[in-house]
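quick one, 212 residues, struct below
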Amino acid sequence: MRAKPIDKERVIELLKEGATIKAVALLLDAHENSIRQISRNADNKCARCTAPVLIGRTMCAACLSGDRSRMKERRKQRRRDGVCLDCGKPRMDGSQFCAAHRQAAIGRNARYEERLKRVGGKSPRQKRADLTYRYDERAWTAWQRDGATCQICSAQDGEALIHVHHIDQDQANNALDNLICLCFACHTGVHAILRAKNRAELIAWVTKTYGA
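---
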């Protein structure tokens, strides 16, 4: 069950009146860490270490880098263990996620494609920042090299959600010859084939369904 949202304006108002973080948390039935994070964000401080941050950011560069490193290591270990990358529960056959997180991924893609129809995709500047943040500058180079186009079905960015896929499945290996642009549907199919227990049958089904 999703936790109810916290009224941030009310939190700031109470803190300005002199209430302690513990008192505000009790009053609003929220966790103290959530109230502390709201307080630090209002003061443009890192939610974790209190270092100054740019307006609109919640954590400093050092804490973000640490979080990314821990997340990458956790996902790599879960990949080795053969469990859901997001929660560590048993995977669905042919997927890298459990049923719940697989459905969540499909939902995110549907919402993104709906947004594409309404307002368009990210600007080149936004996409470059996103790829560099998640991987490094070489991911942006691969995106430009492939023309932001799926290298299997030729869908273009703006028509579908385009991912940068790591061919050897190691997201730490950002060598250009290990990166390729794929749309969400083809990316999902590639991972299904890689993880299928009977790859020959799955490849035959994909070929029959989508053509050679």
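Strands lie at 162-166, 179-183.
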